[in-house]
Prior knowledge:
Blueprint: H1 2-16, H2 21-30, H3 37-51, E1 66-69, E2 74-77, H4 83-90, H5 98-108, E3 114-118, H6 126-132, E4 137-142, H7 145-157, E5 163-167, E6 169-170, E7 175-181, E8 191-201, H8 203-206, E9 213-218, H9 224-229, H10 232-235, E10 240-244, H11 253-260, E11 263-269, E12 272-277, H12 281-288
Domain Methyltransferase FkbM: 199-263
InterPro entries: FkbM_Methyltransferase, FkbM_mtfrase, SAM-dependent_MTases_sf
Organism: Aureococcus anophagefferens
Amino acid sequence: xxxxxxxxxVLVAAGAALLGGDERAEVRRRLPAADSLSARRARLRRQIxxxxxxxxxxxxxxxGGHVAATRRLKLCxxxxxxxxxxxxxxxxxxxxxxxxxxxxxxxxxxxxxTVFEAGAHVGDHLLPLAAAxxxxxxxxxxxDPSKVAFVERMVAANALANVRVxxxxxxxxxxxxxxxxxxxxxxxxxxxxxxxxxxxxxxxxVLASADDVGLVHLDLEGFEYxxxxxxxxxxxxxxxxxxxxxxLDEGGRIYDHLEAMGFAKFDEVEHNELWRWASLVPxxxxxxx
Length: 289
């Protein structure tokens, strides 16, 4: 359609060059207007939305409450002590860890089964991804009960039937004396320690019934290595591990462990590293990037 209009415009304009001034003005007035860049972008967005697997957003279901918008979708946000934390991390054109978000989206386009996120915080990665990929199952875990309660309410408010959240921390083995250090002013940096009364579980225990695990995502403020020690069975059927690397307590031991389990580093963005089964890295790297 646009090409035909362009050809028509060129032909008519050429003919108008043979006319007098008044006649040329009349011809220009009747020419179809060329699409602006914004119009072409709007048309492309309509075409994408028309073929999207996501349901259209209905703002009325938010009951007049907050709405958080990423570049690709919107979410109702329930009223809570964590409302502003979630909105701050999600409600912008960039958001928190934008390159990590982009990496996760590219990865999940190739992923099937269950996506596990430990250290889910207020669900600022978990919930938008679950809304964008309703064909995948998401399991989120966090040791703070108030954050988990917020994420559960968000799941209900946005009808995300593919999300399950658990209140627990991770360690190499189950124990019931896990504490949570809330001393950091950044609530996203709270970390697990001992001398508490909370439950620590393992990756293997949480994902025991998940036959198909597409991704294990760990943001545990230094506990990533110990968590992976409790996930050896899962790593045998989970081809992708993404973890934060700027608070590692055990130095390079996490890298030795992943290599021993058959993984190789594939990518690093911001302060997060993606490791994949070594057999996948040389075969899929060019297509993936």
